């Protein structure tokens, strides 16, 4: 009897040990995408789409403009902190940071970019394929810094965030005639989802296993689109919201498919549409007062260089606003969206 009990105990203990030692930890947050997650890479390139001047960053640590398109932190920063890592994920092209910082988190995102190469060309920003080239360079630097074995462990266990798509529609499809002459909007959605699939397969081939993919927000409710909605009394542009919902559904389908197709891949679809839509519809539940306009300037059209210190209309307290400029959420809205997503990420990946 005692003998059986002890072997049972030993078995249980070794199982417990196995469980705790194989319980994976996330050693780094690695980010690809557009301005929703760009931590300042556009500061270093020649584009008009920048935000490394005040009042951007006025509520960031030290009141410092970093190149984030907000008054403070953006969602990857909150995700990083929630995993016990740095409170802010640094931009890969930021010369004040090096591989020792990037070993626990790095951002390759570029404001204005999209899945489609034609999107990044509009404002001369970093195309997605180039973000991937930077990532490959980073892999080599990390191997040189911590050794190949440790680097491979970090790269496999890291949580990767991918967030883009809005610019493909608003900056490209609905602004430049080329893609519109080639595709209906539904065909364009399929084209983008195809590109997203190719990109995720390339990430997988490079060793990526833990991935969170964010779809597009209710694009028709961005202040810039509402300002342009003269016919609709500056309400949300329903067509853009419908396109966002359709695109997100297709992207979610892709993620489900890739989880089956790629062994060991664990990808989640981190849909931010509904939470942001809910905030916009019921702002007072979250302590907001203004949803239609951004805080910066008149809030109707200002972003990048038009959102600057000379603009006399900028609001005093950004925490009353859902949007910081005409296109990007305030730190408070970013925080709420991130907090909505984080429990799921912690449950899946840590
Ligand atoms: C985007 O451009 C890169 C570099 O020129 C090229 O390798 C890639 O095939 C292009 N992607 C598409 C979908 O055209």
From TrEMBL:
Keyword entries, A-Z: Signal
Alphabetized InterPro entries for the sequence: GDSL, GDSL_lipolytic_enzyme, SGNH_hydro_sf, SGNH_plant_lipase-like
Gene3D superfamilies: SGNH hydrolase (3.40.50.1110)
Protein name, entry field: Lipase_GDSL domain-containing protein
Organism of derivation: Cephalotus follicularis (Albany pitcher plant)
Organism taxonomic ancestry: Eukaryota, Viridiplantae, Streptophyta, Embryophyta, Tracheophyta
Similarity annotation: Belongs to the 'GDSL' lipolytic enzyme family.
GO terms of molecular function: hydrolase activity, acting on ester bonds
Keyword Signal found: yes
